[in-house]
Structures are given as structure tokens and as C-alpha cells.
Design brief:
binds zinc ion, mainly beta, Beta-clip-like, about 25% strand
Length: about 160
Amino acid sequence: MSSAVGSLARRNSPTHGQGVYATAPIPRGAAILTMAGQRLTFAQTRDDLRCMQIGPNLYLGETDPADPNAIGDYLNHSCDPNVGFTQGTLTLHALRDIAPGEEIRWDYSTSMNEPGWRFDCLCGAGRCRGAVRSFCDLTPAEQDRLRPIALNYLRRGG
Ligand SMILES: [Zn+2]
């Protein structure tokens, strides 16, 4: 499957370190990239390693820098994301048309599910929840809203 990974670039953001930006128009529905990395259990994760949760006791560690999808490690969070896991798989898809120069961001609550995990959110979205929390710690209404862009393991029982 082709992806828009060739239309992405990692850049310094004026407000939040590094981010990933579109360098060309990306149409709604386009595959952006597939999250990659070493599969780890919770016990194998470390604070100095970028990790994302993909299952009840399954995480993706940092991606091999040679992998074209490694740019996925630098995607920031938004409470009003422009990409999401619309198929429930590890491939992010565009939720709307994305213009060149726009930052690519997904909602971290659509993958994390550790009770109590949170950090203050400064994403700036009009619908910002104020804190990024695990899926299990969201309200039922928030879970219903995010389920269509969440990983498959979070959709069960919904
Ligand atoms: Zn936010």
C-alpha cells in the first residue's frame, strides 16, 4: 500500500520541540504511515525510550532510524487530530484534507490504556481536553467519539 510518508518532514516546532509537517497536499483518507518499532512488553519499556501502547501488554519501541516510517516517532498529540487509526490497524490515515505546512498530529488517547497515565495537554485545539489520558480514563462520551480512530484493541467491548 502506498502512503504519504514521502510528503512528510520532521521540523522544529516553535512551540513544542520537534514535529512532523506535511510538505505537499494530503487528501482526506490517504494512508499517512504505519507505526513501526520493536515490540516490547510493559516491563521492557523505559522512560528514555519513546514507546506507544498497541495492546494490553504490548508496546512499540523506537523505530530503526533507517525505516522510512521512523518519522512516526516524532508525531505530536492533538485533541483535534488530523490523522487517526481509522482502520484500527497501526496505519494512520488522514481524517481531513491536509495542507502543506500543516502539522500532522494524532490523538495519543487512541493508543494508550494504562490507568492513571496522563500529562497536561497544550495542544491548543478548541476542543482540547486539558490533559492527555489513557482511553480507559476518558468519559464514555469521549470514548465513543474516539473509538472510530482508535486501535482495534481499544474498540472491543464498545
Ligand atoms: Zn489537547
